[in-house]
């Protein structure tokens, strides 16, 4: 009887750990769920670890499709239905290069929040994730073996990474600030508007104006968002910051691309819930929108100086054959069908 009660308690705790409704803030389990739902084409938003209406709708849509109880909870049955993307739980194994699954996606999200970007959050432990784990281990004084075992996970949960005065290593020194993504006046500020939060600022720019990345980072989403943002690019920066670029007419970036200030990511448009051409620009810290003006520099990402400073060869990756390691290194840029062939 005692064993049965213990087993039931463990099962209830497992359900609670991944139930979106129970999350009060960004969560690695919610991020892992979002990655899994993206893979089965029910979730079209960014992987931000926040259990919002879009994530809950996507989860219920998946449950209906699989004839499961439509309760909006990622419990054992739902996790099993997600297949390899729904397991194993974080902490149940030491993660290393070549592993894939729920725990890897949760690890990648946790490292991003601590400022150790592993590229796209896609549930694949490739070279970029290994490099991020090594950077974390070195900064915490752990044995640097690139394997995310119990000691590495405990260190990750403890809090912010140790900073260095020289600016080397993971580069977590100095305040995080952003270039203006284009040279245009601000037409709408951050704050309450029409009875709801306007979570960013709007730049009044003509259709087709060039939009540049506001700083160094890795693109975690590049495509169409069904929650009103239209064509959207999301860039992960250090220390848990993200920048969002919405309503684009055309997206010229891709998921997993490494960008610097001024890298072209798209052009101004009026897609999604938009009444006319403009750029909606957001800054988020650990998944929560903050006023971009508190972090915005006077320089523009599209100026010749900033483009030259961030100049880099840009070639969208192509996927030939079945080089799984290469596909993992490219993060989410690889098509699921291409990965499936390997």
The helicity comes to 25-40%
Query: What's the end-to-end separation, in Å?
Result: 46 Å
The CATH superfamily of the largest domain is known as: PGBD-like superfamily/PGBD
Mean residue pLDDT: 78
Task: Work out the count of structural domains.
Answer: 2
CATH domain class of the largest domain: Mainly Alpha
Low-confidence stretches: 5-24, 161-174, 304-313, 318-342
CATH architectural group of the largest domain: Orthogonal Bundle
Per DSSP, the total helix count is 10
CATH topology of the largest domain: Muramoyl-pentapeptide Carboxypeptidase, domain 1
Question: What string, H for helix and E for strand, traces the elements in order?
Answer: HHHHHHHEEEEEEEEEEEEEEEHHH
Structural class: alpha+beta
- Structural shape: globular
Query: Count of DSSP E strands?
Result: 15
Description:
The chain has ten helices and 15 strands. The protein is α+β, with helices and mostly antiparallel strands. It folds into two domains: 16-158, Muramoyl-pentapeptide Carboxypeptidase, domain 1 (Orthogonal Bundle); 178-309, Glucose Permease (Domain IIA), CATH 2.70.70. Strand 8 (230-236) and strand 9 form a beta hairpin. Helix 2 (28-39) packs across helix 5 (102-113).
């Amino acid at each position: 009887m005692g064993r049965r009660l213990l087993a039931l308690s463990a099962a209830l705790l497992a359900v609670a750990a991944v139930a979106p409704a129970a999350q009060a803030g960004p969560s690695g389990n919610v991020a892992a769920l979002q990655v899994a739902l993206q893979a089965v084409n029910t979730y079209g938003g960014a992987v931000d670890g926040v259990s919002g209406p879009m994530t809950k709708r996507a989860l219920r849509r998946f449950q209906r499709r699989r004839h499961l109880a439509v309760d909006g909870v990622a419990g054992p049955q739902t996790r099993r239905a997600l297949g390899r993307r729904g397991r194993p739980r974080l902490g149940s194994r030491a993660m290393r290069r070549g592993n894939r699954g729920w725990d890897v996606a949760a690890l990648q999200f946790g490292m991003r929040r601590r400022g150790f970007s592993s590229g796209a959050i896609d549930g694949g432990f490739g070279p970029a994730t290994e490099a991020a784990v090594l950077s974390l281990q070195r900064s915490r004084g752990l044995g640097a073996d690139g394997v995310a075992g119990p000691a590495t996970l405990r260190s990750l949960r403890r809090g912010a990474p140790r900073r260095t005065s020289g600016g080397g290593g993971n580069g977590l020194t100095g305040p995080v600030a952003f270039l203006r993504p284009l040279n245009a006046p601000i037409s709408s500020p951050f704050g309450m508007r029409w009875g709801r939060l306007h979570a960013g600022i709007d730049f009044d720019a003509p259709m087709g104006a060039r939009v540049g990345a506001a700083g160094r980072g890795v693109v975690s989403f590049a495509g169409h968002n069904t929650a009103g943002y239209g064509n959207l690019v999301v860039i992960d920066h250090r220390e848990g910051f993200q920048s969002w670029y919405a309503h684009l007419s055309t997206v010229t970036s891709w998921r997993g691309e490494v960008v610097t200030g001024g890298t072209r990511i798209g052009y101004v448009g009026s897609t999604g819930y938009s009444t006319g051409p403009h750029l909606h620009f957001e800054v988020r810290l650990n998944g929560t929108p903050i006023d971009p003006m508190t972090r915005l520099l006077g320089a523009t990402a599209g100026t010749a100086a900033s483009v030259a400073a961030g100049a880099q060869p840009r070639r969208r990756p192509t996927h030939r054959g079945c080089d799984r390691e290469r596909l993992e290194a490219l993060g989410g840029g690889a098509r699921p069908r291409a990965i499936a062939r390997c």
